[in-house]
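Re: export button greyed out
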Amino acid sequence: MAGITLTDVVLVLNRTMILDRLSLAIPPNGITALVGPNGAGKSATLRVIDGLLVPARGSLTVPGTRRAFVFQKPALIRASASANVALGLAALGLSRTERRARTGAALARVGLAHRANDPATRFSGGEQQRLALARAWAARPDLLLLDEPTANLDPGATDLVEALVAEMAAEGTKVVLVSHNLAQVARLAADVIVLARGRAVEHGPTRTTLLSPRTPEARAYLDGELPWSSLAAAS
Amino acid sequence: MTETIHETFARLMTLDRDVLAIAWLSLRVSLTAVAIGLLLGIPLGAFLAVTRFRGRSALVGLLNAFMGLPPVIVGLVLYLVLSRSGPLGSLGLLFTPGAMVAAQAMLATPLVAALTRQVVADAEDHLGEQLRSLGLSAPRRAGVLVYDTRFSLVTTALAAFGRAISEIGAVLVVGGNIDGHTRTMTTAISLETQKGDLSLALALGIVLIALVVTVNAVAALLRGHAVRAYG
Amino acid sequence: MVVPRRGFLTLGLLALFGTVAPASMDRARAEPASIVVASTTSTEQSGLFKHILPAFEAKTGIAVKVVALGTGQALDAARRGDADVALVHDRPAEDAFVAQGFAKARFDVMYNDFVLVGPKTDPAGARGTDITAALKRIAAAKAPFVSRGDRSGTHSAELRSWKEAGIDLPAVKGEWYRDVGQGMGPALNTASALDAYILADRGTWLAFKNRGDLAILVEGDKRLFNPYGVMLVNPDKHPTVKAKEGQAFIDWLVSPEGQASIAAYRIGGEQLFFPSANVSPVTKAKP
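Workaround output, generated via the alternate export path:
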């Protein structure tokens, strides 16, 4: 699969410029992280890639046929866990048997097979997010878009979600991850894109980019977010 | 006054089969009208909640206004339409329970549609993006959101039932208050009031209220049971 | 199972339709023969129909559905073809109905009479046997008077009586004259609450329960005679009219059996309606 490219993408919402001639080239494999301060346009970029938001100008190439999106707040309906997973398969035109098989496999994969018939809205935050991942994975996506998937979770639940994301990426699913948790970015991502004011200001391998940013915008953001980088500078 | 109340309870004890038949007719007519209202109103309301098109907000405004449609106007319009001299006169529906069902369905449908639209739009706020990302078409999104909000929609159905069973303006005009045929609780109460038999009218009123309370209680029980099972 | 109990509400709806809709829809169809009779509130509210109809229905198997309206409205409904038979009490309006071709003939059925009802204390001094004298005294005293005001037969009779008393109602009308625009029952309720005078048909008055301090003050004046006529709506005007069944009802009403049934209806020992049928129609349309 070729990579995702955005060229001079302009997105305006409610008369506010969200993406300002954003250009990106995301590599075809592994996990790519999008970081940057609030309002930089990270979530908007994910939505443009998924087609949920349509840019006013610019061009966009997203290869692959199947995308899946996991939001910060897992959007679950008042139904059983398995019904929520099956919802992800509703638009794929699969047979009933195939849907059941995939639903069962997806629940087993995230460790929720034993709770298949329980109401999803009564799950804990971590279980809900794993369920959302199961729903995403059941569709066998080429591209998995994650918008701060662990922002509301405790460390234990975060570990479980991270492990699942790493596995899926290892199996060949391209992952684009928006996260403010730079430790998580360091654990998962191969490369990092830093966004600021609707533009990509820096893009490089995770370690290099996080430890020695080249642009002042990236440095300003990372200084605020990474306590250890300032500690490292002081020592 | 105390004499009337005393008499009312005496009458309650001796209510006969006629009253049961009237109560049963009221219940059947209103439940059928509400069922039709739900069948038409829920899809309409859900559709308005998940789609955006020109004139949509005007339609929503109209629907909200129609929640307060005066029953007697609905009855009058339907009377003119169903009259033998009217456009649908050949159906022979005037002065039948069918005409009363139609009238109450006309009152229930906008109410159901407007309340459904609000409930589904609220659910759309936090689920809509995910559903669109899953590639679901507008009708499917509407369906999923209706399913998601089904417990709130029970309240909508009860509101519609309350409006249907308590109205008199429409059923009186299109039903004709025919004894044993189109006499409902409300038209019977009105008739007994007119005849000056206030204690009987009051006794019938108590039966009507009991009917409404019972239907609401049954719905609340079913809803509670479903919510416990499905959260 | 993907959604084990998805069908919860769907089932509920289906159950509604399964039981409710057919029940209410079938009822109209299941009755083999029925006619709609547009009649007056006085006949319905006095309880006359409840008394006489079972005999007719048992004999012929024809169900009679009575829609009780004011005479004017009842004739309007008949004119639109919404009723098969009209049984009303406003002779001039009935004659016009026949003259316009909406019915081919009018038959006398019965009569009762109007009574002037008022407070037992009779502040205007209306008590007596002369309706015009009574109305003159009420107008002079400006004593509260409740009028139907609904184009009913009773309303017509009231307006005729004012005219015969030589009173120009529009000129003298004031606070004291309450035009309620409702049926006999509600008008009596209003009169009872206001201790007002009112012209009522005897049948509704006898069946009326919320009398308060009201009593009959004037009765027996020949001018208060209140004849009822019955007409089959002309099937040439409205082909949907059930002429055979409608005529069967009229024939029964004017038959000795129907007339006896009307005469037998009593409240508290008092007869409400007096049979008056001639076998031949009283008014016939011009050919």
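Chain A touches chain B through 24 residues (CB under 8 Å). The button fix ships in the next patch.
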